[in-house]
Write the structure tokens for this entry.
Amino acid sequence: MSDRVQATSLAAFQQDVIEASRQLPVIVDFWASWCGPCRTLAPILENVAAAFAGRARVVKVDTDAEQQLASRFQIRSIPTVLLFRDGKVATQFVGVQPEHAIRDWLTPFLPAAESPAADSPEALAEQALATGDAAAARRHLEALPAERADSEQVRALRARLAFADELAAVESGKADLDALYAEGLRAAVAGAYPRAAEAFLTLTVRSRAYREDAGRLALLRLFEVVGAGDALAQDYRRRLAQALH
């Protein structure tokens, strides 16, 4: 467990999940210590909790210790992840999912843009990057208090800003591969990580000489943004190794 992901129990479930979900979405991970896929999913959910801090919560239920809760929600296989909104289960998935898929799964249930939870500098920077407004994103991040300026979420946002800074120069370039690189950079800025990874890998395969191996280096930077444990990073790291050898 961490300060971003907390355990809950039968006694605390009403407060931790049901009541909390009336304010923002609550992701409940039903897991067990002996479950290999559960251990794979755990750091992915940690990343999601960090990325959506203040807009969603992630809690965990140990199915061995909390068999009544597992029975109540008819948990047949683990990991099973339920999303609660407005006091009830809104959606769920079973098994390990990549981080980008979980983000997409969660997004429709996030608080509306006008709510206080979505007005944090981090959330506003995320929205600005999604629409391609890097300057606004930078202003929102500069407004962060010092104690929040070095969180995992903020580091990822700053990495996406770095892609945006590079994009401006590439878009004005004349090289044959500039369009492909710009496509990857644009996707990375917007948070469309699978599309970015595919563009960067394709660029690497086509030319290691382009901008001094820019495709491979951008792909490695993208791995840092999504996190080493993310399924997308693992998949494209394997594909990159195959392409290089």
In short: Residues 152-244 form one domain. The radius of gyration is 20 Å. The longest strand covers residues 88-94.
